[in-house]
Each structure stands twice: as C-alpha cells, then as structure tokens.
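Lab notes, practical 5.
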Amino acid sequence: MPFLRMDFEGLRPLPTLIFGSRWLQLPLYLGLIVAQGVYVILFLKELWHLVLGATKFSEQEIMLVVLGPIDVVMISNLLTMVIVGGYETFVSRLELEKHPDQPE
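Output from the prediction step:
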C-alpha cells in the first residue's frame, strides 16, 4: 500500500519520528469525513422542512429556511477543502493525476 510506505533512508531517528508523526492526523481527517456525513443528514432534514412548509411559509420565512441548507453546503465545502488540502499537504499525496474526476 503506497500510503503506508515509510522509506526514510538516511534520516536520523528524531527527524524520522517527526516526519512520521504526520500520520497522527489521519484519524482527524477521517473524523471530519464522518462530520461531513452528519452535515449531509442535516441538509436533507433542512430541505425536507423547506419542502413541507413551501405552501404555508411567507417569502421571508422561506428565505430564512433556505439559509440553513446554504450554511450546511458552505460548511461541507470547507470540510472538503480542509480534508483534501490538509491530507495532501501534511500526510500523503492522493495521486489523482490520472483520475477523470480530479479537480483542477
């Protein structure tokens, strides 16, 4: 598995330990992925609330209810940026160069 390779040839023990400690962030990124799943559930709940109240809400109430899913989407986008960017920067390369869905 390429993400587990630990080829630190020529490094002294302390730099090896410091460099290897970046893997301690992996559970944090996995936890953020779980948190993003919770936000998906929250988004669906907010959307369902909006659909059920569409005929009885005033325009101002609809605007306020729509702000909930917008917040959820913005936070979810931020989570994605932190997860992908942080993992790629601090832990290991994602090696997406040949993947058709690789963002630009």
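Observations recorded by the TA: The mean pLDDT is 85. The helical segments are 13-20, 26-53, 59-91.
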